[in-house]
Amino acid sequence: MKLHATFLFLHLLAVTIWVGGIFFSHVCLRPAAMEALEPPQRLALWQSIFVRFFRWVTIAILVILLSGFGMFFHSGGSPLPGAWHAMAATGLLMTAIFASVLIGPYRQFRQAMAVGDRAAAAAAQGRIRPRIFINLLLGIATLAIATLGLAF
């Protein structure tokens, strides 16, 4: 039982870091930056944030996957609840969306910032935002599935 509890703790901690970080950035940080900073300052701020946040998200994803599979295998092969399958599906979809951000617009953002092309960096950032927002919605749905089951 302790092993399952440890897996569950690590799983929830990593989910909190990922989904909570997205919520904070969309609901608090972005609006505040829009009010307080000029566009060049905002781009520099996001450049610094992305490096740190995406590193933590990568770690969180690894912990989520390892702890999720750990709970799966620790269940002893008994039939798993449908909610577990739904959480796995939404989590894998979120992971794919995050990977698409990293290899697509985030790479373009970094390249544009490296050469000082603010317009291209802003355009790339504009392509990151909706994908991250979709992950926020999927993260909230996953939390609903985890706590309410499939009947929410």
Question: Any overview of this molecule?
Answer:
By secondary structure, the chain is mainly α. The chain has a single domain (2-151), classed as Up-down Bundle (Four Helix Bundle (Hemerythrin (Met), subunit A)). It has 5 helices and no strands. Helix 1 (2-36) packs antiparallel against helix 2, helix 3 packs antiparallel against helix 5 (118-148) and helix 4 packs antiparallel against helix 5 (118-148). The longest helix is centred in the middle third of the chain and has 36 residues, at 39-74. The protein is elongated.
SSE order in H/E notation? HHHHH
Globular, elongated, flat, extended or rod-shaped: what is the shape?
elongated
Give me the number of helical elements. Answer: 5
Low-confidence blocks of residues: none
Distance between the termini: 28 Å
> What is the CATH third-level topology name?
Four Helix Bundle (Hemerythrin (Met), subunit A)
Corresponding CATH architecture = Up-down Bundle
CATH class: Mainly Alpha
Helix content: over 70%
* Percent range for β-strand residues: under 5%
* Number of spatially distinct domains: 1
Sheet having the most strands: none
Structural class: mainly alpha
Q: What is the typical, i.e. mean, pLDDT?
A: 93
Q: How many strands in all? A: 0
Rg is: 18 Å
